[in-house]
Backbone:
C-alpha cells in the first residue's frame, strides 16, 4: 500500500504534469518555439493531436479498474478522477478547435455537420455525454447523487465506444490505428463484463440460500469501488 | 516518332561533350530565369527554400493555362502528401521515400495503340518542351494547394503513341517496388495503384504529365519521375510514378473506386454539390493559409469549369461522381 502522503504530494502532481505534456508540446509547436511547427495543415494537426490524447486518457481512465483487479492495488483508484478530467480537457479542446479554427464558428455549417455527418454526430454525442460526468466529478456531487452517481458514470463505457467509433469512421482508409484503440477498449471492457456476470451468479446463489438483502448490499459496495 | 529502348547505350552516354558543357552554362542561366519567373508569381519564399539536391530542369516555359494564384511553398508541397506506397500518413511519403530510385525509368505502352512497347524515360519525355503549369490541387479529403508543376501535355504524347480507333480510355499504373516503397508491404490498397481517364479527358489541354515542381525534378514523395496531373479532378486521379500507359475500349479499374465504390467514383470530378458520404465537399482547407483562415468554398471542377464542363454535357454528375 502506497502511503497517503506519497500519493497526494508526489504521484498526483507528477501525473498532473504528465497529462499536461501533450498540451504543452502542442502549444510549443503552435507558437513555433525552437523551430517547431504544426506542419502544413496546422488546424488538422491540432484537431488530431487533441482527439487522440482525449481517447488515450479516456482509455487510461478505463484501465484503472482492470489494473486494480489485476494487481490488487486499491490506491490506483485515486488517479482515476484526474485521468478522467484530463480526458475531458482534451476532448473539450478538440471540440473547441473544431468550432473555432476548423469551422470558424459558422453556426449553419456546424449544425449541418453534426446532423449530416455520422462521425461528427457520434463525436458530438460523446462530448455531450462527458459534460455531466466532468461536472459531477466532485466529492460533493458524488455525495448528493448517492447511488445514482455510479449509474450516471457508467455512461463512460458508452463514451469509450462512441469515441472509438468516431475515430474509426473518420479515417479515410487505413483503419489500423483506430483498430488498435478498439482492441484496447475491448480488452478493458471484458474484465468488467466477466466480473458483472460473476457477481450476478453470486447474487443468484445467495438468493437461493435466502440471503438476498445481503447480496444486494455487497453488490452495491463492489460497484462503488 | 518514338524510338524504342536501345539495347546497350543510354542517350546520356552518347551526348557530345561540347553539348554537356553548354548545358552547364544553360542550366545556370535557366535557373536564374526560372527564379525570376517564380518571383514574378510571388513565390519568393517557396522558391528560395528548394534544397540544392533537387536537379533544376532547363528551359521551362510559362503557360497561359497557369492560375495567377500564389503557389504553396516548396516545403508544404513536399511534406504534406498522399502517396500510400510510402505510408498512409501525410508526412510518410517525405519520411519514407529516400530509398526510392526514380532513374533509370521505363514506361510500358500497351493495348489499343500503334506504338506499343517499353520506352526509356527520355524517349517518353525528351521530345516534349517543358512548361510550367501552376494548378490548383483539390484533394478528396477537402484540402487544397496551388502547385507549380513542370510537365507537358499528355495529349501530345498520346498523339505520338497513336492509339487505335477502338481506344476509348487511357489507364495508368504506378510502379510496384516493395523494397523501396514500404507502404506497399501493407494491404491498405491493392497494388499496383491504377487510374484511368476517358480519351477526351486525357486529350484535354489541361491534362499533363508532370516531371517537376518549382522548376526542379519531382521529389520522390511527389511521384517521381513521371506523374499525371488532372487539375479539375480530386488528387487521387493524378497517379504518381507511372510505369504503364494502356489504351482500352472499356473503362479501366481504378484503385480508389475498387476500394470503396460508394465513396470514390471513376470520374472523381471536383464537385461541391456532391458530398463524400462521410464528409462535406462544399468547402476546402487551404494549405498554407494559416491557423485562422477558415475554409474556402470549393468550386465546380475545381474552378476549371469553363475549360472542362463541356466534356460532361449530358452526364449526370451526381450519379457519375
Residues:
Amino acid at each position: 500500500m502506497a502511503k497517503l502522503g506519497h500519493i497526494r504530494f508526489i504521484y498526483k502532481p507528477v501525473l498532473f504534469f504528465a497529462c499536461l505534456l501533450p498540451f504543452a508540446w502542442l502549444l510549443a509547436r503552435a507558437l513555433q518555439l525552437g523551430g517547431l511547427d504544426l506542419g502544413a495543415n496546422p488546424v488538422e494537426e491540432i484537431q488530431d493531436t487533441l482527439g487522440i490524447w482525449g481517447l488515450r486518457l479516456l482509455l487510461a481512465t478505463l484501465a484503472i479498474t482492470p489494473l486494480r483487479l489485476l494487481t490488487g492495488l486499491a490506491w490506483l483508484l485515486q488517479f482515476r478522477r484526474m485521468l478522467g478530467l484530463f480526458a475531458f480537457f482534451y476532448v473539450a479542446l478538440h471540440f473547441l478547435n473544431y468550432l473555432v479554427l476548423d469551422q470558424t464558428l459558422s453556426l449553419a455549417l456546424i449544425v449541418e455537420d453534426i446532423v449530416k455527418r455520422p462521425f461528427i454526430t457520434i463525436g458530438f454525442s460523446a462530448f455531450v455525454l462527458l459534460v455531466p460526468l466532468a461536472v459531477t466529478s466532485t466529492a460533493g456531487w458524488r455525495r448528493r447523487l448517492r447511488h445514482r452517481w455510479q449509474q450516471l458514470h457508467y455512461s463512460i463505457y458508452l463514451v469509450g465506444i462512441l469515441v472509438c467509433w468516431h475515430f474509426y469512421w473518420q479515417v479515410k482508409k487505413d483503419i489500423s490505428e483506430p483498430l488498435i484503440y478498439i482492441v484496447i477498449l475491448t480488452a478493458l471492457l471484458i474484465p468488467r463484463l466477466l466480473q458483472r456476470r460473476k457477481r450476478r451468479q453470486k447474487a443468484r446463489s445467495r438468493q437461493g440460500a435466502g440471503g438476498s438483502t445481503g447480496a444486494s448490499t455487497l453488490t452495491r459496495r463492489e460497484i462503488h469501488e | 516518332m518514338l524510338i524504342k529502348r536501345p539495347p546497350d547505350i543510354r542517350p546520356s552516354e552518347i551526348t557530345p561533350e561540347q553539348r554537356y558543357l553548354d548545358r552547364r552554362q544553360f542550366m545556370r542561366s535557366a535557373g536564374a530565369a526560372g527564379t525570376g519567373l517564380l518571383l514574378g508569381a510571388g513565390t519568393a519564399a517557396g522558391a528560395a527554400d528548394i534544397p540544392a539536391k533537387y536537379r533544376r530542369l532547363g528551359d521551362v516555359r510559362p503557360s497561359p493555362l497557369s492560375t495567377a494564384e500564389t503557389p504553396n511553398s516548396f516545403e508544404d508541397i513536399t511534406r504534406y502528401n498522399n502517396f500510400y506506397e510510402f505510408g498512409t500518413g501525410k508526412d510518410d511519403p517525405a519520411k519514407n521515400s529516400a530509398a526510392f530510385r526514380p532513374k533509370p525509368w521505363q514506361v510500358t505502352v500497351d493495348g489499343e495503340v500503334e506504338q506499343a512497347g517499353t520506352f526509356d524515360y527520355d524517349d517518353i519525355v525528351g521530345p516534349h518542351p517543358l512548361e510550367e503549369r501552376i494548378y490548383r490541387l483539390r484533394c478528396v479529403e477537402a484540402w487544397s494547394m496551388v502547385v507549380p508543376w513542370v510537365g507537358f501535355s499528355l495529349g501530345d504524347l498520346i498523339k505520338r503513341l497513336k492509339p487505335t480507333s477502338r481506344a476509348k480510355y487511357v489507364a495508368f499504373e504506378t510502379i510496384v517496388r516493395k523494397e523501396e516503397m514500404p507502404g506497399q508491404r501493407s494491404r491498405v490498397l491493392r497494388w499496383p495503384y491504377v487510374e484511368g481517364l476517358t480519351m477526351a479527358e486525357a486529350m484535354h489541354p489541361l491534362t499533363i504529365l508532370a516531371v517537376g515542381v518549382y522548376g526542379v525534378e519531382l521529389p520522390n514523395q511527389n511521384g517521381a519521375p513521371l506523374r499525371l496531373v488532372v487539375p479539375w479532378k480530386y488528387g487521387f486521379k493524378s497517379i504518381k510514378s507511372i510505369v504503364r500507359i494502356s489504351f482500352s475500349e472499356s473503362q479501366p479499374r481504378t484503385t480508389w473506386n475498387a476500394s470503396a465504390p460508394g465513396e470514390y467514383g471513376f470520374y472523381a470530378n471536383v464537385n461541391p454539390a456532391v458530398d463524400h458520404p462521410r464528409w462535406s465537399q462544399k468547402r476546402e482547407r487551404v494549405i498554407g493559409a494559416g491557423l485562422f483562415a477558415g475554409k474556402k468554398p470549393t468550386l465546380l471542377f475545381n474552378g476549371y469549369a469553363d475549360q472542362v464542363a463541356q466534356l460532361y454535357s449530358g452526364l449526370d454528375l451526381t450519379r457519375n461522381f
Notes: DSSP finds ten helices and no strands in chain A.
